[in-house]
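hey so i finally got around to running the thing on that chain from the lab meeting. sorry it took forever, my laptop kept dying and i had to restart like 3 times. anyway pasting the input first so we r on the same page abt which one it is
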Amino acid sequence: MQLILPILSFLLAPVATTACEGACITDTTNEFLNRYTDPVLTALQNLESANQISTKLVPAPGRRENSIVYFTPVMEAYNFTAYASLEKAIFPSFFHGKCQGPDGVNPPGCPNPDCATVCGTPGSMVHFYANLTNIVFDALTGILANLTAPGCKTYNQIQKTVMADVNKGQRKRMENLSRIMPLRSHASIQARSAQKTQQELKKIMEDVSSTMLETCGGADLQLCSWEEPMKKFILQFP
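ok and heres what got predicted. didnt touch it at all, straight out
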């Protein structure tokens, strides 16, 4: 019995975490999502203002005071899907597993504070932080690109709202034109206008990735890095 008790005590003792698990995964993922809240919203606002969805596509009588509402379906879908997509992109797609070699020994700096081996430890994420920054940007920008791709549900919702405003604005214009133009010409004008509006909207949506890149400061993502505070945040985990 004296031999068994020490063995049981060893088996029941807490095992030190040597990889990013549990709260490390969820909290790190959520921290990046929280920090990207403003850049994502800014990018959508810039996309609307730079391409002027309202002033360029919608006749004056149909324009909205706050045209960012066109992107409401995108923001709602983004909020619903972003966590799962980002967690998967970080863990385990790139950072996964423990850093121990075949001999069971951790390389220098592993699991923290600076591990030069790609694995699922805080130290590895800190060492390869540039990779982590790109992974997060690519994952979240990819979500936005998918949600603004022609034919998808959210794109169709945006297009439906825009076209409703276009039609609203055109009614007033048609009322004025009806005095000088036969009614049968109205349908032809509306059809040409609808087709042109849809083509222009498609072009605007194609700029979402480049707009996100610009919002984040260009190729080095200096405005979407948060290197110092994020490294400190990650290293709070064992």
